[in-house]
Amino acid sequence: MRLIDLSAPVDASGWEPEPVKHTVMSAAEGARHMTDGMRKNFGIDLRPEELPGGEFLTNDMLYLSSHTGTHVDAPAHYGTRADGQAARTIDEMPLDWFDRPAFVLDVRDTAGRTVDAAAVELALKAIDYRPQPMDIALFRTGAAEWAGSQRYFTDFIGLDGSAVRYLMDLGVRVIGTDAFSLDAPFGAIIEKYRATGDPGVLWPAHFAGREREYCQIERLSNLEALPAPHGFSVTCFPVKIRGGGAGWTRAVARVTDPE
Hints:
Blueprint: E1 2-5, E2 21-25, H1 27-42, E3 59-63, E4 71-73, E5 81-82, E6 85-86, E7 99-106, E8 114-115, H2 117-126, E9 136-140, E10 158-159, H3 161-169, E11 174-177, H4 186-196, H5 204-207, E12 215-218, E13 230-235, E14 246-248, E15 252-255
Parallel strand pairs: 7-9, 8-10, 9-11, 11-12
Antiparallel strand pairs: 1-15, 2-3, 4-12, 4-14, 5-6, 7-13, 13-15
């Protein structure tokens, strides 16, 4: 069995709409910080120079959105209700959703910005696969090529509501993409709304989650490393953030190579 990393790093050097702040406390700074904290909080007196090499432990401080890097969106991200009930947050989602057989659909050649149900059906026929209930669906849009740049947030292919509903009708409850969003880019969505005046074209993939619960994995990477479109499993447990609308994940594919 091989493990294939499908995750994008949290990288403070890349372009983000909400910039990431990442500071590193050195081992020497960690010694001072730890001994000060021991004195203040526990009444224990220890000098930094008493530690081996005058060093303790490094520490990373991060300020970032839960939607930075590869992450899982919970139903609560899409709205307050799902399936007629209060939408569940990321810490409330069942773990068995996130360790499942998976398949990947390559939609890089899609005309326009949006994949609909008919396109999903054709893509499944092209790989000769019928999804099983609770399979994880992944979409390779090619957007990962622009990760770290502003273009990553404006140039990608999304799903419409019909595509999400089609997959949910098949029993899929986790849908992933290598793009910034499962929906089309902001500009394409607003342009369509201005042309039609129909609020139903606003973020239809996300808002389909108000009708039935499902989760998205956004900002995947390395989907091109998967050796086949199906016959592998994905593990993508989200970080347990109490009350959170999303949680970061280290998404990994498990591939069994033929002997």
